[in-house]
Design goal:
2 domains, 40% helix, single chain, seven-stranded parallel beta sheet, alpha/beta, Rossmann fold
């Protein structure tokens, strides 16, 4: 199977080859032809499965082909992609931009999100065809007439399961009310739960349902280990592991913004290049830190569950849980940042005595017992 055989244009295939993408992922072989055929889609697939490219490529083709037949009004976008986080908005936009730029297309795309000044986003809205937005900032822009949704032809909800479970319901209802009834709906989710089922009934018309079954449990690609250790020794153990194993590109998860800052500061003071990233940082700082980390210029990135989902860091070798999350599902999403696209990764969890019972619950949910490592003999 090739991208050409799926209906992707030669110009886009040239860019794919340059990016060393030659064989479509399973979800792409299913989604691309259906979108080109103007079908509604309900796609269930894990992050890292090739989902973003599965809708970016056919959307670009459809917009390029149909744009001349559409009534084009300034500040009336034709494609709306709604995502839950700023980082995912920027990531999706970068994928669109790559293929627009490299094919010399005249399609204009823009990402808008909170945490950044609204004025430059308002000014940049002129003649935008494809808008990638977080719900809150989108509604802000609508309220000041910076963008209108009455001409939208294609709507994408990416990470829909997350948007329906973290308090976006009211904002999403407002957005749906602004959209025209006649449109193509593309709904993507990592899981198929009752919220998605209810949304499917409201949004989708005779959808093509694509559920990608994992060929193997992605957790099996992750080498896990757990260190049971007093809370006061977590910091020294973390520094020991990073230095002793010469770890590069380490993503450390903590339970709060304050703890993330504290852990990153302690690492830095002990000669380990580290920084924290979380919701209290400016969008510019978050973007720069994430870019530096992805490029291997920053050794350790300490975060909250901000980066537990929706961010694709290819070939990330190490994830360390400095503290446990509230739910087993978040734990699985955290460690799922590594062991992606068929690559092996390592996930290390530091467990203090008060967390042991909760860790047992997580193991039961994963249906996997994590090997324990005795840290008593380490020189901390």
């Amino acid at each position: 199977m090739s991208f050409i055989s799926l209906g992707i244009s030669e110009s886009l295939c040239t860019v794919l080859e340059r990016e060393k993408i030659t064989t479509p992922y399973p979800i792409q072989t299913e989604v691309i032809p259906a979108i080109l055929d103007n079908k509604d889609i309900l796609g269930i697939a894990k992050t890292g499965s090739g989902k973003t490219l599965s809708y970016v490529l056919p959307i670009l083709m459809n917009v390029q082909k149909k744009k001349k037949h559409w009534v084009m009004k300034d500040r009336h976008v034709q494609v709306l992609v709604v995502v839950p986080t700023r980082e995912l908005a920027a990531q999706v936009n970068s994928v669109f931009l790559k293929y627009i730029h490299d094919t010399s297309s005249d399609i204009k795309t823009l990402a808008v999100f909170g945490g950044a000044s609204i004025n430059p986003q308002m000014m940049a809205m002129r003649n935008v065809n494809i808008l990638i937005a977080t719900p809150g900032r989108l509604l802000e822009l609508v309220s000041v007439n910076a963008v209108h949704l009455s001409a939208v032809k294609i709507v994408v909800l990416d990470e829909a399961d997350k948007m329906l479970t973290v308090g976006f319901e009211k904002e999403m209802d407002q957005i749906f009310a602004l959209l025209p009834k006649s449109r193509q709906n593309l709904l993507f989710s990592a899981t198929l739960n009752e919220d998605i089922h209810s949304l499917e009934k409201v949004l989708l018309h005779d959808p093509v349902v694509i559920k990608m079954e994992e060929e193997s449990d992605p957790i099996e690609l992750i080498k896990q280990s757990a260190y049971f250790i007093p809370e006061e020794k977590k910091g020294p153990l973390l520094r020991y592991l990073i230095k002793n194993q010469d770890m590069k590109q380490v993503l450390v998860f903590t339970s709060s913004v304050t703890r993330a800052d504290r852990v990153a500061d302690k690492l830095y003071k002990n000669g380990i290049d580290a920084s924290s990233i979380h919701s209290k940082k400016s969008q510019g700082a978050r973007t720069d830190l994430l870019r530096a980390f992805k490029q291997g210029k920053l050794r350790v990135l300490v975060t909250t569950d901000l980066l537990a989902r929706g961010i694709d860091i290819e070939f990330l070798p190490f994830v360390i849980n400095y503290e446990l999350p509230r739910s087993p599902k978040i734990f699985i999403h955290r460690i799922g940042r590594t062991g992606r696209a068929g690559s092996f990764g390592e996930a290390i969890t530091l467990v203090n005595p008060s967390e042991e019972t909760h860790f047992h619950v997580i193991e039961k949910k994963m249906k996997k017992r994590v090997p324990r490592i005795d840290a008593d003999h380490f020189d901390l």
